[in-house]
Specification:
It is a single chain. This protein is α/β, with parallel strands linked by helices and 142 residues long. It folds into 2 domains: 34 residues, no CATH class; 102 residues, Glutaredoxin (3-Layer(aba) Sandwich), CATH 3.40.30.10. It is 28% helix and 35% strand. A hairpin with a 2-residue loop joins strand 6 and strand 7. The two termini are 30 Å apart.
Length: 142
């Protein structure tokens, strides 16, 4: 279940001795039931990525990386849009350096697409959603 935005609005007008007081309370719940793209560790890499039966997009990132924070919401939204057709993971290069080294990650963010246990494509840097979307779609039709 997903709730993108739920707005509850309470409005009450109260009469006072000398004025009318209007009270409005708004409550926003955004993505209350959505789960973020999971983080992977080196130990999960084989089973979650290389042995996956569907294509996998992996975002290599680091907590100190500003462009990574820009691309996170894009990857999160793509994971929702392509649910069931593609798997999505994030891997923190500071916490899982072995996997990052194995794939020659020198800059973050780097997004790599895997299919059938093999690296198929990579994108370096914070790119527009359309760039990632077109790359994903190429591997859905193969």
């Amino acid at each position: 279940m997903s709730i993108d935005v739920l707005c509850i609005l309470f409005h009450r007008t109260v009469l006072s001795d000398s004025c009318i007081i209007s009270i409005t309370i708004e409550i926003y719940l955004t993505s209350l039931f959505d789960v973020a793209v999971p983080n992977l560790s080196d130990s999960e890499w084989q089973t979650k990525v290389l042995e996956s039966d569907v294509p996998v997009l992996v975002e290599f990132w680091a907590p100190w990386c500003g462009p990574c924070r820009m691309i996170h919401p894009i990857v999160d939204q793509l994971a929702k849009d392509f649910a069931g057709k593609f798997k999505f993971y994030k891997i923190n290069t500071d916490e899982s350096p072995n996997t990052a080294n194995r794939y020659g990650i020198r800059s973050v963010p780097t997004v790599i697409i895997f299919k059938g246990g093999e690296k198929k494509d990579s994108i370096i840097g914070a790119v527009p959603r359309e760039t990632l979307e077109k790359t994903i779609e190429r591997f859905l039709v193969e």
